[in-house]
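Reopening this ticket.

The earlier resolution said the output was attached, but the attachment link was broken on my side. Pasting everything inline this time so it's all in one place.
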Amino acid sequence: MLDNLSSAFKKGFDKIAGAVFIDSKTIEQVVKDLQRALIQADVNVHLVKEIGDKIKEAAKDEKIKGIERKEHLTKILHDELLNLLGGEKHELKIEKGKQTKIMLLGLYGAGKTTTTSKLATYYTKRGFKTAMISLDVYRPAAAKQLEQLGQQNKIQVFTDEKEKDPKKIYDKFQPQLKDYDLIIIDTAGRHNLDKDLVDEIKDLTNLINPDYKFLTLQADIGQTAKSQAEEFEQAVNINGIIITRMDSTAKAGGALTAANETNAPVYFIGTGEKMNDLETFNPKSFISRMLGLGDLEGLLEKVESAVDPNKQKDLKEKLEQGNLNLRDFQEQLQQMGNVGSFSKMMDMIPGLGKNKDKIPEEMLGNQEEKMKKWQHAINSMTEEEINNPEILEKQTSRLSRIAKGSGTTTTDIRQLLKQYKMIKELTQNSELTNLDTTQGLSQKQMMKIAKKFGKKMKF
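Inline output:
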């Protein structure tokens, strides 16, 4: 995600931090590198020049009381990038028991239907009673697609594939919609914003009276995003933007900066194909991630989206009783997979993002592959083996059978058993079970646990 821009800003900050003197030559080189990266990220050329001029002008001021010139220039770079991405984080005002309606707009191919389901999944995971309704009567597969996504994620969907008037579809389901905290409305698109589409959106707006009208833009359209955002803003007064496909392009700068220029802030970004790959857009956290400083808020948000709270409650009870089995371990592997790839998670963990480039990509991929193999192996076990993994170590002939049935090796299964034993031992450790969770782990406790388990935690 914007790797070139991220790399350029990291180098810029490092160059400033490492310079003995901040002279005009250093500033010129830093600005030049940043401008090149911004253009490669598809940011508007005029905007790039404006940013460069601002940095150069601000950097001339050497007489700022109490601040070193390096600190001053670093802050200028940070602030310009923050302004470029929209400044502050914008959040939806949604309350349980008080209905909120979100209507998604956009042209063909922007990902409205998938985003509708991602948004519904996001808020369902946070305890909101959510429903989706399909008002796209032109694309034959739209209603069916939303229905399937709803079934997969256990979210109520209202559709009528026979009706060709979107207003009649909404009227038909209005009585049932009253029971939900949040209604997310998927609307039709066109190849361009023509008069018919504008009229339809205006008619639906008058009927539905949505609290939010979000334009869905795909990141890979680059600078075209600006004209799209401006046209929708002028025609139907959008409240904000959701950018999709952020993971699949290095040119997302065009879409991100276009949103800022049209006074329609970015609320969410889509970062992958899974239902949990939707994040609230926080410019400060985004910059922190780009600079390799991590984004713990974003990571916790992804975990909250991926983890099933009911299953976590059951797991907690099993841990307290010391009844963890391989099926529970498998559940944790699946939920880790839902959070995202190791590469994505490393970007969000402070300290690791900067060092990600030093870790071979195949090493991260190997770990993800290993976790998949472990799940296949568990699926090839009997209930007796899942509930009592110890018998696999006593009766090693079982390992060959499991390996053959799961397409793994006996070495894979032994590694699985080793990790399972380590996790079980860790959860039964008195340092954790007797811990006052309101106080957290002391440094002494952390060192003791790390010494005991650190050597075992090999991937």
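Reporter confirms the inline version is readable. Strands lie at 100-105, 130-135, 156-158, 182-187, 212-218, 240-244, 266-270, 278-280. The two ends are 26 Å apart (CA to CA).
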